[in-house]
Write a structure and sequence with these properties.
- The strands form two sheets. A five-stranded mixed β-sheet has the order 2-3-1-6-7, sandwiched between helices. A two-stranded antiparallel sheet has the order 4-5.
- Helix content is 40%, strand content 11%.
- It contains seven helices and seven strands, in the order E-H-E-E-E-E-H-E-H-H-E-H-H-H.
- A hairpin with a 2-residue loop joins strand 2 and strand 3.
- The relative contact order is 0.10.
- By secondary structure, it is of the alpha/beta class.
């Protein structure tokens, strides 16, 4: 049995090509055309009727850790994909279907993971929009080029996001939550908090005096008198 993996990195409602529904549709068509059975399994928090849906606003990789024996490790912050890889390595499924290389890989680390699964682990990973001959030099070149293009678009998107944030900040718009000491009154309105701002200023004066350690300052900030703890946030809504 196979399952379908869908990943979306944009929140643009007009981007129908890469929508999760669009990816599932292409994955199912590919399975039908190639007579690949799709599982009906549902795993809470991971898979629904044989389809894994994962949404991301961007790629993040935790710092790598290097061991004394020369080996290294890193953590990929894409939980569902890594759980899917675990199921494949355990032999619970024959393989997975992805719309194209871009949906499975956005950088060199992704490329390494997919290539290892295909070339070294013998995992059957199919792509609905491409037919790579993984054992032939031409096929490997094809997927390498697609990987480079995916990396380019990932970097280009990152540039656009940073440029947008810089432009908004120059205009006085701060879309994210205001830091402690300010009030949230909209993206372009972050006035000083009359209750907390003086306390934050007092902490800066204490730090500048050189008589207080960061630990002492943190303790003061969290004290009942100052109460400069983090603002409460709503829990992120899940699919369920």
């Amino acid at each position: 049995m196979y399952f379908i993996y869908c990943r979306r990195s944009k929140n643009d409602p007009n981007d129908q090509k890469n929508s999760l529904d669009g990816q599932e549709k292409k994955g199912r068509k590919h399975a039908k055309d190639n007579k690949l059975p799709i599982t009906n399994d549902s795993i809470e928090g991971l898979m629904e009727n044989g389809v894994i849906r994962e949404s991301h606003s961007g790629w993040k990789t935790n710092p790598r850790e290097y061991n004394d024996d020369g080996s290294g490790q890193y953590k990929i912050d894409r939980g569902k994909l890594m759980k899917a890889v675990g199921l494949l390595l355990e032999g619970k499924y024959t393989g997975m279907i992805i719309m194209n290389w871009d949906r499975g890989s956005r950088n060199d680390l992704d490329d390494t993971l997919l290539k290892d699964l295909i070339d070294n682990q013998g995992i059957d990973i199919r792509f609905a929009e491409a037919n790579y001959e993984h054992k032939r030099s031409g096929g490997k070149l094809h997927r390498n080029v697609d990987g480079m293009v995916a990396q380019y678009w990932s970097d280009k998107t990152s540039d656009a996001i940073w440029d947008w944030h810089r432009k908004k900040r120059k205009e006085g718009n701060i879309g994210n939550q205001a830091p402690i000491g300010y009030l949230d009154r909209g993206a372009d309105n972050k006035p000083l908090d009359p209750e907390r701002a003086p306390k934050v200023l007092e902490l800066f004066h204490m730090y500048a005096s050189g008589k207080w350690s960061m630990r002492q300052l943190t303790k003061n900030a969290n004290s009942v008198e100052m109460n400069l703890t983090s603002k409460p946030r709503r829990r992120a809504r899940t699919r369920e």
